[in-house]
């Protein structure tokens, strides 16, 4: 089966650090993605992990543990513009390379 | 290339009518995906093309939904005999065959069924 779990909502303060967790159970695995989606807009790509470990890209980092079916997205030096939904997604090669999304975590950044 | 484009951006229709959405992917991308998204949810996979071949279709998709990509370029998604439950944002995305192969999304086509 396919299941991707992430918290529904999180609130953090401007300038702080926030970690958004994601756990997944999928038939197959060919990479984990994080996307950002502002209200009323399309999702945009943030990060990609296929091997275990941490990938860093500016203020954003993403971690993957395949054995635990676990990932997190770390956002540092939070800015108001980071208020958005963050979507955890897994690419499943079973039957084709479709990408399955979680429901998303709505992050509210307060001053 | 300006990215993935979708048309129309908004469609309001009466229950029972047919609607068709068009997606033009990034030109060098051979993979094209259709997703449906409702408020507060993540994108829900509908179907996937590699070039002109439809490789997978979600079991959630009823027979009222059909998609084509006749020449491996643009794609259409048709919904027949629309129902109020079909109201959603229909997102198209494309990707290349690179190792990461992240999805590039269009702005979506919002469907409202009255």
Descriptive report:
By secondary structure, chain A is an all-beta fold. Chain A is 0% helix and 58% strand. Chain A contains no helices and 11 strands. In chain A, the strands form 2 sheets. In chain A, strands 2, 4, 5, 9, 10 and 11 form a 6-stranded mixed sheet that branches. In chain A, strand 9 and strand 10 form a beta hairpin. Chain A is globular. Chain A starts with a strand and ends with a strand. With 114 residues, chain B is mostly beta strands. Chain B is 0% helix and 49% strand. In chain B, strands 2, 4, 5, 6, 9, 10 and 11 form a 7-stranded mixed sheet that branches. A 4-stranded antiparallel sheet of chain B has the order 1-3-8-7, with no helix packed on it. Chain B is globular. The A-B interface holds A 4, 31, 33, 35, 41-45, 48, 50, 87, 89, 91, 95-104 and B 31, 33, 35, 40-45, 48, 50, 55-56, 91, 99-108.
List the helices and strands and how they pair.
The complex is a heterodimer of chains A (111) and B (114).
Chain A: E1 3-5, E2 9-13, E3 18-25, E4 32-37, E5 44-49, E6 53-57, E7 60-65, E8 70-75, E9 84-92, E10 98-101, E11 105-110
Parallel strand pairs in A: 2-11
Antiparallel strand pairs in A: 1-3, 3-8, 4-5, 4-9, 6-7, 7-8, 9-10, 9-11
Chain B: E1 5-7, E2 10-13, E3 19-24, E4 31-37, E5 44-50, E6 53-57, E7 65-68, E8 75-79, E9 88-95, E10 104-105, E11 109-113
Parallel strand pairs in B: 2-11
Antiparallel strand pairs in B: 1-3, 3-8, 4-5, 4-9, 5-6, 7-8, 9-10, 9-11
